[in-house]
């Protein structure tokens, strides 16, 4: 494919994906109390048994002080648990709580429901097949 064609596809695809992403973020009332960074932290903690506050700050590219405030907020909401390290009492392991996992599942369920309804109502059968076939190439782009 020529560079011109890929540039044209990129120019058309980027704003559509950005708008869809923003719409999905706004849809779920269950996570309105959380910032994007707080949601990202919960997902990171779901993917790892635990992380240290400093590790989370580096991953999210924010200051340790800001991370401390965010973790305190998540802890007040009972979405994360803090446990002292057995090896080094100065370190605190941060993990997602059962309530945090439930919140993430609810958010995902609400977003999946909306997207499923939207696909069923506005896309023809052929368009639904095109969307299904596009998942592979879109996944490649995300992993690039």
UniProtKB/TrEMBL annotation:
Family matches, as PROSITE patterns: HTH_MARR_2 (PS50995)
InterPro entries for the chain: HTH-type_Bedaq_tolerance (IPR052526), HTH_MarR-typ (IPR000835), WH-like_DNA-bd_sf (IPR036388), WH_DNA-bd_sf (IPR036390)
Stretches assigned to the HTH marR-type domain: 6-140
SMART domains, A to Z: HTH_MARR
Top-rank taxon: Bacteria
Record-given protein name: MarR family transcriptional regulator
């Amino acid at each position: 494919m020529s560079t011109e064609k890929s540039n044209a596809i990129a120019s058309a695809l980027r704003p559509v994906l950005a708008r869809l992403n923003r719409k999905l973020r706004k849809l779920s009332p269950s996570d309105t109390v959380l910032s994007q960074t707080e949601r990202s932290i919960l997902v990171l903690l779901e993917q790892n048994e635990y992380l240290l506050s400093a590790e989370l700050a580096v991953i999210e590219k924010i200051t340790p002080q800001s991370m401390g405030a965010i973790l305190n907020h998540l802890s007040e909401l009972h979405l994360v648990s803090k446990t002292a390290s057995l090896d080094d009492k100065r370190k605190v392991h941060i993990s997602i709580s059962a309530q945090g996992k439930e919140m993430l599942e609810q958010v995902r369920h609400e977003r999946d429901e909306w997207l499923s309804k939207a696909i069923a109502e506005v896309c023809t059968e052929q368009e639904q097949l095109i969307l299904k076939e596009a998942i592979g190439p879109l996944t490649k782009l995300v992993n690039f």
